[in-house]
Design goal:
- 35% of the residues lie in helices and 14% in strands.
- It contains eleven helices and eight strands.
- α10 links the parallel β7 and β8.
- α3 runs antiparallel to α4 (189-199), α3 runs antiparallel to α8 and α4 (189-199) crosses α7.
- The longest helix has 20 residues, at 319-338.
- The N and C termini lie far apart (45 Å).
Length: 340
């Protein structure tokens, strides 16, 4: 459930009467999206939401100084985020969900509903950054360029293990009651708050905490007050939506787009230009993973965000970092246009 003060201005819904998921489940689904920028522009961009991300809270890069200010930008809700179809909103929603499902559903939106013939750029943060790898792997002739901010082509073992902490805190909470909270007529607030409290410190860096950025930049009097605010945000999410999106994140691997599962060959097969932008201090998707992945890309560039803001440094957490990110993306896109 979105918070009561969440602004849904401009969000539209596309209905797919019969959608086939990767696990063969067939259901009618909806895909939520919003159009930004100039709809008449020949330049087309797509931005997916991230984990615990909603459409109108997602960076669209079209504001003043934005890298996509001259583009027609479509921001789309991932399957599972409840703006698009999710366990909390759709009866019979499958227990298994994949990145491929979101890509296929969003492709239908872009091509069949909006009439896009090609994407000039995909730009995504976090889980959206992982989608930025999946798109050119799955639709190589549809995507000209792709930008992965604080994401990876494959979720590392450490990343997987991190998520087990908040997930287990939720699953073992007394009010989640082994998934029987709805039958018990209880909203699992304690479990959701435990999830949020365990999750919060991983989003930032040790240096960020050491320098008390929660106080100097965000205005919280104590680190506990900042953590409580993260909890308050988490309780606005349905637990089943958090769990299924987390499951997608944990099993992320573009090797799964190939019949042989070969991760390196999936990277080598990407024809699009790619800009890989990890945060120097990201504890989910560290730059070392990106350095390894870019070796296999035919047209890959690595641009590390030098920030102490950890994971959120790539997702709008720091205005200073945002300026650098937009400038770097602008340069990357201009380079591509000059070679066409």
């Amino acid at each position: 459930m979105a918070p009561s003060d969440y602004d849904t201005t401009g969000i539209e819904t596309y209905h797919i009467p019969s959608f086939t998921f990767l696990n063969s489940t067939k259901l009618p689904i909806r895909v939520a999206y919003r159009s930004f920028g100039d709809p008449s522009s020949a330049l087309k961009a797509y931005v997916p939401t991230c984990y615990q991300g909603r459409i109108n809270e997602t960076s669209n890069y079209t504001g003043e100084g934005g890298a996509l200010k001259d583009y027609h930008v479509i921001v789309v809700g991932m399957l599972g985020n409840a703006e698009s179809s999710a366990p909390s909103t759709d009866e019979g929603f499958p227990k298994e969900l994949s990145y491929q499902d979101t890509v296929h559903a969003h492709y239908q939106l872009l091509t069949e509903h909006l009439g896009f013939e090609q994407l000039d750029v995909v730009a995504g943060f976090s889980m959206g950054g992982q989608l930025a790898y999946y798109w050119p792997a799955m639709y190589p002739d549809f995507v000209k360029a792709s930008i992965a901010l604080c994401g990876s082509a494959r979720t590392s073992y450490h990343n997987w293990a991190f998520f087990e902490g908040p997930k287990t805190a939720l699953l073992n909470s007394i009010d989640y009651a082994d998934g029987q909270y709805k039958a018990n007529g209880v909203w699992p607030e304690r479990g959701l708050r435990a999830f949020g409290r365990a999750y919060c410190p991983w989003a930032f860096s040790q240096t960020w905490y050491r320098e008390k950025k929660w106080e100097t930049d965000l205005g919280f009097k104590t680190v506990d007050a900042h953590t409580n605010e993260w909890e308050n945000s988490t309780v606005t999410w349905d637990p089943e939506d958090l769990l299924i999106m987390g499951h997608v994140w944990q099993k992320g691997d573009i090797g799964s787009t190939r019949s042989d599962g070969n991760f390196e060959k999936a990277l080598e097969g990407i024809k699009a230009r790619m800009l890989i932008m990890p945060s120097r201090t990201d504890m989910y998707f560290p730059p070392e993973d990106s350095e390894n992945e870019v070796k296999y890309l035919k047209h890959g560039e690595l641009a590390v965000i030098e920030t102490i803001w950890g994971h959120v440094g790539g997702g709008g957490g720091s205005p200073k970092d945002d300026i650098w990110i937009n400038e770097r993306i602008s340069g990357f896109l201009k380079e591509g246009q000059s070679t066409e």
